[in-house]
Amino acid sequence: xxxxxxxxxxxxxxxxxxxxxxxxxxxxxxxxxxxxxxxxxxxxxxxxxxxxxxxxxxxxxxxxxxxxxxxxxxxxxxxxxxxxxxxxxxxxxxxxxxxxxxxxxxxxxxxxxxxxxxxxxxxxxxxxxxxxxxxxxxxxxxxxxxxxxxxxxxxxxxxxxxxxxxxxxxxxxxxxxxxxxxxxxxxxxxxxxxxxxxxxxxxxxxxxxxxxxxxxxxxxxxxxxxxxxxxxxxxxxxxx
Length: 240
What we know:
By secondary structure, the chain is α/β, with parallel strands linked by helices. It is 41% helix and 18% strand. The chain contains eight helices and nine strands. It has helices at residues 16-24, 43-53, 69-83, 102-110, 132-149, 165-169, 182-193, 217-235, and strands spanning 3-9, 31-36, 58-62, 87-90, 115-119, 126-128, 161-164, 198-202, 204-206. The strands form two sheets. Strands 3-2-1-4-7-5-8 form a seven-stranded mixed sheet, sandwiched between helices. A two-stranded parallel ribbon has the order 6-9. Helix 7 (182-193) packs parallel to helix 8 (217-235). The longest helix has 19 residues, at 217-235.
């Protein structure tokens, strides 16, 4: 199955070249779509050079500024669908999501799953080099989302995912309300509501080693609002 990996970037010059190099070297052949939000540190220029060095395998989408994670993924989804990819993987640029797990995710899709999540919270998965408050925040957010929205996946906030293209085509991506990290929760909710089969594979999540985390207090607030908004829609049987 023709596969691409979408990597949203903002100030990831320390990571992007090494990540793309590892992705292109995987035993399961994958291409890469870098979605750069006009990074001041020159990440976009590095991505352009990689695209020139690997024509047809590395694609770059340049956006005018920092427009949010959700819209970055949507831009990547539209590009992947238009280019004819069968599987679309999403991941962070900071190596918190191990590229070596992508073949496992692809294999899981081949077993009949429609969305596969690289999960910290299934047997064999873990999060390392994260502070205790960060771990508690992640655990609490997942428990909150699973309880209120009836989500079956254990890692509801994970951005490491592999979608069949048919899953993305079944969802009106331009109607997704959430933008930042809360986009991940809303997408999972809509995928489950559509009846697609969701699976998980264990990963070892490692806190970023280079660059600066993009998670802010504002992102946490937006995620809380997203869960409550979707819960209200679920409670009253309305479309989210």
